[in-house]
Design brief:
This protein folds into two domains: about 10-45; about 50-150. It contains five helices and six strands, in the order E-E-E-E-E-H-H-E-H-H-H. It has helices at about 65-75, 80-100, 105-120, 120-130, 135-150, and strands at about 10-20, 25-30, 35-45, 50, 60, 100-105. A three-stranded antiparallel beta sheet has the order 1-2-3, with no helix packed on it. Strands 5-4-6 form a three-stranded mixed beta sheet. A hairpin with a 5-residue loop joins strand 2 and strand 3. Helix 1 (about 65-75) packs antiparallel against helix 2 and helix 3 runs antiparallel to helix 4. It is elongated. The N and C termini lie far apart (about 60 Å).
């Protein structure tokens, strides 16, 4: 770490402790050049990808948009707020683990639908009907038929 006083590149850590409710590590350092002390904070870099929309626009990832869409789809269904949060966290984790800087909105939607289908099929159909923007009843019925075929008897 470069000393903020003399610019020397070598130091030693005098003390380390948790800071900001575990979101950072506070380190007291002593410069080996000028022997002055300074504090640094170390945080995990959370890289959220940009979302590439269907029309080509790019915008920052917003987990709240997914949560709100799922709440609407799961309205009056036996899906708890905790289950919705777990689903969104799983999708968010998948995006972070991919390491991609840009992700298509369609990939996010498909990841949400895949998990929602296993959680509640009625909520899945509701979400899919908005997400896929069915143009007519035939497309909607085709999705339902596919869902009925997937269901174990």
């Amino acid at each position: 770490m470069r000393c903020p006083f003399c610019g020397h590149m070598e130091d030693r850590v005098v003390d380390s402790r948790e800071a900001q409710e575990g979101q950072a590590t506070r380190r007291r350092r002593e410069c080996l050049g000028c022997v002055r002390r300074f504090t640094t904070y170390e945080r995990i870099e959370e890289v959220q990808p940009s979302v590439v929309k269907k029309d080509g626009r790019r915008e920052p990832f917003d987990r709240q948009k997914i949560v709100e869409g799922l709440r609407r789809a799961c309205q009056k269904r036996p899906v708890s707020a905790e289950q919705i949060e777990e689903l969104v966290a799983a999708v968010e984790r998948q995006l972070q683990e991919s390491g991609e800087r840009e992700v298509r909105s369609t990939a996010i939607g498909e990841a949400v639908m895949q998990r929602l289908k296993a959680l509640d099929q009625v909520a899945y159909v509701r979400f899919a009907s908005v997400y896929r923007a069915f143009r007519d009843v035939g497309e909607f019925m085709s999705e339902l038929a596919g869902l009925a075929q997937d269901k174990p008897r």
